[in-house]
Amino acid sequence: MAALARLVATGLYTGYLRPYPAVWGTLLGWILGVLLLPASDAARVGWAAFAIVVSVGTAQWAETAFGHDHRRVVIDEIAGVLTTLALAPASFPYSVLAFFAFRLFDNLKLPPVRRLEGLPGGWGVTLDDVAAGLQAALLCRILAWVYAIAA
User: Fold this and answer.
1) How many domains would you assign to the chain?
2) Cβ(142)–Cβ(87) below 8 Å
3) Peptide bond before residue 111 is cis, with ω within 30 degrees of 0
4) Does the reported pTM lie above 0.85?
5) What are phi and psi of 11, to 5 degrees?
6) Measuring CA to CA, which of 21, 108, 111, 148 is 20 to 30 A from 139?
7) Which domain holds residue 99?
């Protein structure tokens, strides 16, 4: 069971890749999300919700194995970028924007996102990334709206 939890928490071991394991984990989540683009909105949201639940559980386990919010743990990045992709416009160009927007907001940790890191266990590890994913999705939606008006 520990081997499976490590595999999931580290995003199929992308958390061991250097440099910037979070970027590699985000890339894995982005690839999974792009594969879901043809699915319905509800299916994409369902997969993002599933990833959030899995992230909270495996991040909780990972705290005992690695310490709080260790760099190797990237399941939270996967849940965050899947959140972005579930709520952003469902097209490949917007999925590319979603990747970069998520990385931007995950690094910036705009208020009140940074406060979420203080939540206990897997909640603190995961919810700051989900909130960054929500911010990134909002940016994608605003840019899509502006583009539609300008076109």
Assistant:
1) 1
2) no
3) no
4) yes
5) 60, 60
6) 21
7) 2-150
